[in-house]
Amino acid sequence: MTNEPQVTKHGGGIWSIPVPIPDNPLGHTLVHVIETDAGPVLIDTGWDDPASWQALRDGLAACGTSVNALHGVLVTHHHPDHHGLSARVREESGAWIALHEADAAVVRRTRDVDPSRWLGYLVEKLAAAGAPDTHTAPLRAALAEGRGGRPPGRRAALPDRGIEPNALVALPGRRLRAVWTPGHTPGHVCLHLEERHPGRAGPGGRLFSGDHLLPTISPHIGLYEEPDDDGSSDPLGDYLDSLERIADLRPAEVLPAHQYAFSDARARVDALTAHHAERLSDLRALLTQRDLTPWQLAESMRWNRPWEQIPFGSRTIAVAEAEAHLRRLVKLGHAEAVSGSHPVAYRATG
Ligand SMILES: [Zn+2]
Ligand SMILES: [Zn+2]
Which residues form a coiled coil (predicted)? Predict the structure, then answer.
């Protein structure tokens, strides 16, 4: 079966190429192509899979160019649906790869970590969050049998350069500014094309928003994967601050890395802010009834389906989301850890 690539020409030397993500309900990553005086530059590359690679090649051909012609790759964040094919693109074209330092650090750690240590770390983290033995048993069994598993992104490319917040990216003939938007990952960036929109009047330009701002999906916010997490980071707080920064740019159009392009950034930011505010107040209400571990809190939260129907891997993601909201509530002074509890439980304050 062959699928014709549905490349979208956005005008002003910008295209998007849908690169499929195998076995994932998201469907595809929108890889953007920016024409520059030094050759085309990609924003993100897509999942590392033969079919995805072929889709990227076909897509570039449909844009009238090729992998060999690429001048550089700007990566919005380290996740494998964005950074997966970067190494392959560099190998074939000699293009540089740029990533924000905070995400480059995640890539370095993931490449260096011994797989069994990574699994041990995951088991420890889940147990500390109050996960029951039934949830961690398969992981512990794998660990005992020496099936270390492979952390995602072990083959991810080390970048050649950083992306400096607030600075213009050195793209000949274009005016593209990096906006650091931590939250979804510690080094997520949006890229603001400070040029007049080819189809719309007024200032504002276009914003490549990665996973930070999507038309209908609320991006996953968990705790950052820090080996020595001392409780000081606040990813949800970072995310909400970053959302405001984006709305203040008043882009005429948002070009996200999934779904489709849209125009009203302010309305989308307001909806996401309201969503998290509501979630935080629901969670605080739950914590006034009884002390809860992050795991128990995740079980009690509203999800898109009943907890019993949430599969194993998604529960791990759900508990990370609960932890990020708890961290925010603690920072706001609305919740605190119950001293002496193990695994640590939380209660509402104030
Ligand atoms: Zn992502
Ligand atoms: Zn993504």
Answer: none
Tell me the pLDDT tens digit for each residue of 39-48: 999 999 999 9
**Do 8-104+154-263 and 277-348 agree at the fold level?**
no
**Maximum C-alpha span of the chain:** 64
Which tokens in the block code for residue 288?
Answer: 């006034």
Give the distance (Å) from ligand 1 centre to CA of residue 291.
Answer: 32
Q: How far is the CA of 288 from the centre of ligand 1 (A)?
A: 33
CATH number corresponding to 277-348: 1.10.10.10
**Ion ligand 2 residues within 5 Å by Cβ:** 81, 211
Ligand 2 centroid distance, CA of 225 (Å): 17
Distance 211 CA to ligand 1 centre (A): 5
Residue extents of the structural domains in the chain: 8-104+154-263, 114-150, 277-348
Per-residue tokens: 321: 């989301």
Beta partners for 15? 9, 33
> Which string of b and e fits 119-153 if b means at least 16 CB within 10 Å?
beebbebbbebbbeeebbeebeebbeeeebeebeb
Read off the DSSP letter of residue 158: P
Give the containing element (helix H, strand E) for 276: helix 265-289
Ligand 1 (ion): which residues have CB within 5 A? 79, 211
- Give per-residue pLDDT as tens, 188-241: 999 999 999 888 877 789 999 999 999 999 999 999 987 777 888 999 999 999
The CA 109 to ligand 2 mean position distance, Å, reads 20
Both tokens of 49, joined, read 């899979």
Mean of pLDDT values over 67-73: 98
Domain 8-104+154-263 top-level CATH class: alpha beta
